[in-house]
Amino acid sequence: MKRFFGTVIAICLLFSAQFLEAQTVTTASLIEELIDLPGLTTLTGPTFSSVQYSSYDRRSVAPDQPGWFGNADGFGGEPIPGFESVLRQPDANGIGEYLICDVKGPGAIVRLWTAQFAGEVTMWLDQQKEPIYQGPAQDFFFHAWESILGEKPRAAWEGTLFQNTACYYPIPFAKGCRIEWKGDIRQLHFYHVQMRLYEPGTKVRTLTPRDIRDNISRLDEVAAIMADPSTHLDQDLVNASQQVVWLKPGEKKMLHSLGGSGTIRRLAIKLVAKNLDKALRQTVMDVRFDGSPWGQVHTPVGDFFGVAPGINPYESLPFTVQSDGWMICRFEMPFRDTAELWFENFGDQEVTVTTKIMETPSRWKEGESMHFRARWRVDHGLLSDPSQVKDIPYLLFRGKGRMVGAAAYLMNPTSVPTSYGNWWGEGDEKIFIDHNLKASFIGTGSEDYFNYAWSSEELFMLPYCGQPRNDGPANRGFVTNYRWHILDNILFDQGLDFYMELNSHRVVEDFSYARMIYLYAVPGGRDDHLPMTDSDLRHLELPSYWWPEGEGHCANAIFYQVEDLVTGYPPVELWRDPKWADYDLVVWKPASMDEELVMTFPVSSDGNYILGFIVARMAESGQIQIDLDGQPLQLGGKTIHDLRTGYRDVARNLMSASIELKEGLHTLTIKPAGEKPAPVGLDFIWVRKQ
Question: Closest Cα partner for 441 from 399, 485, 410, 475?
């Protein structure tokens, strides 16, 4: 009998130890959360609140007080230093010490971001005497784990753990985290530090260098899944059965009706229509769980998948859009009793909708299981004016749940061709959690929230963030940004309000701003969603004609259309489209590597000038070199320029540094570079005297 009870006690102790281990937050458990999409659907596990420490303008106190739209947030020389406190005033060399954060209790860093961060940071965990890291600030914010180990960045973690300008290396701590910055407050010091603050008593195992080394192999595996989720996560989707429905204009049909307790694991949709761009915006999907009269998911099909307008292929962890038109959602959608998938055609053309659904039985747990929600909204005809900055509401939600993503779909019809001058996103995100009147998140710019910087025009598609569309030049035209909150998801108990400031470099009329928040919520929540109208869903088009305007980087510039500069030989084609200035794009198709396209432009007086070239990046393009008066011209620090792009033609700006030019005519020579000649698209050039 004693032996029996001894065995029972041993078994109980074993299971108790395993349970406690399962409830303990560790480096290994957080690594698994990097790809744990099913885990987002429930409220099991340790609870936490989310907070972001950032270099935001400290004059941003409340919406009804001066300074709410302040923009001194890391450029240097702010009226109030963008830190929690000043630890030591600047010395004779301008070097001071500043507190980024000092958190007491259990928690974890889940995201770091910077555009540029001079100086040195020091981080202590659990009030230890010795810091776990002390060194260059930017190295730590880009590659935290490698910096802690004193190693070079690992290739497998580029584009996965480090995504563009943000890093997602989890850093758990049991008792606290303190980060200080030492540097010149006059230099650039942009930063975000997003943390989970666990409930007191939560078991957390603090990160050590050994934890990093012990988990490298698993993190490499997780990074591989993040980099290619289609291969690793969608094997069964290939053989899933298809459902097809044809929608006439104005028609609404239910395509799927699921019963019993279950979960939609995968949802794939493809639309076919004469004008696919219109169909993707004007075909609305309505996903209703458990008898809801309105869909918890209510959005244009294309916008739901983060591609609008049109098909813009990309791969991310929860969404993939393929060039053949198939769009895949991996955010899982649990339901207690029923799930219905409806489609409505708001357009004037017939649309064919094809779907694949992978659904499996699952157990609904009251108080823990959550419905997936994604409700779209738009404002057309906005005036974007830096003298009248405004907070754009993405979502006001009341209830309990978890935010897992955001996307923005913009039309920016500016006539300025440079980023400094046509940038739309100087405004910051402001996220209010529960009933707090103070924002838990205040950012440093719209692009900073979406994990890029410096109003970049570059397309990028990464596991948690991307810009799959940006027409250009610079930030003109249609722009799409997304960010998925996976490891950095935001829990809320009573509600969440998400705003993004609209703050552009100059006045832009007829600005269009569509957006959406993705979240999971316990049944019973409510939001500020509005019914969609035909006007909301109208097909957007850029102005039918535009001419470049000299502002920002090209202030006071003289603009020359390339079709007015070419001589007629070699022959060129004119491609007509409103995206190009003066409606024309010159396309030169060199017959050999020896062929050259020569142009001349006048300079009215001696001086220093900046030259800008608006070029087309196209799938069929190749590499070029541009010579000025017989010498290779550096544009953006390069003499060879790759004009290829993956899918959609875009306009891009190549700019020179300051160069000395004499009065008179100057010759530009365009030459093929690379292995073989390829088409070259040239819109216009601009010449600015300094």
Answer: 485
Residue type at 456 in one-letter notation: S
The model's pTM: 0.95
Number of compact structural domains in the chain: 3
Q: Is 535 exposed, middle or buried (0-12, 13-18, 19+ CB in 10 A)?
A: exposed
Which of 175, 199, 227 delimits the end of a domain?
Answer: 227
For 386, phi then psi, to 5°, come to: -65, -20
Q: Domain span at residue 66? A: 11-227
Q: Is residue 543 in some structural domain?
A: no
Q: Are 208 and 70 in a shared domain?
A: yes
Q: How far apart are CA 306 and CA 478, in angstroms?
A: 13
Closest CA to 430 of 9, 29, 57, 25: 57
pLDDT value at residue 569: 86
Residue 622, CA distances (Å) to 584, 616, 680 in order:
20, 11, 7
User: Is the domain of 506 the same as that of 373?
Assistant: yes
**Looking at the structure, do residues 215 and 242 belong to the same domain, yes or no?**
no
CB burial of residue 458 (10 Å; 0-12, 13-18, 19+): exposed
pLDDT score of 251 more than 60: yes
- pLDDT tops 50 at residue 14: no
- Same domain for 585 and 489: no
Per-residue confidence (pLDDT) for residue 22, from 0 to 100 = 60
Q: Which of 206, 227, 248 is the last residue of a domain?
A: 227
Name which residue leads in pLDDT, 307 or 15: 307
Task: Answer whether 604's CB lies under 8 Å from 592's CB.
Answer: no
The answer as to whether 375 is a domain residue is: yes
Same domain, yes or no, for 216 and 243?
no
- 542 lies in a domain? no
Per the listing, tokens 């990309």 go with 314
The amino acid sitting at 118 is A
Length of the chain, please? 690
User: The tokens of 647 are what?
Assistant: 């899918």
**565-603 pLDDT, tens digit each:** 998 789 999 999 999 999 999 999 999 999 999 999 999
DSSP at 153: P
User: Is 433 among the domain residues?
Assistant: yes
Find where tokens 């722009």 sit.
479
One domain for residues 29 and 78: yes
Output DSSP code: residue 629.
T
Spatial separation of the C-alpha atoms in residues 368 and 47, rounded to whole Å? 12
Bigger pLDDT: 260 or 1? 260
Residue 296 belongs to a domain with what CATH number?
2.60.120.1390
Q: Are 532 and 376 contacting, i.e. CB atoms less than 8 angstroms apart?
A: yes
Q: Do residues 597 and 669 lie in contact, with contact meaning Cβ atoms separated by under 8 Å?
A: yes
Query: Going by DSSP bridges, is the β-strand pair 252-259/490-492 parallel, antiparallel, or unpaired?
Result: unpaired
DSSP conformational letter for 6: H
User: Are 181 and 249 in a shared domain?
Assistant: no
Is there a contact between 655 and 611 (Cβ–Cβ < 8 Å)? yes
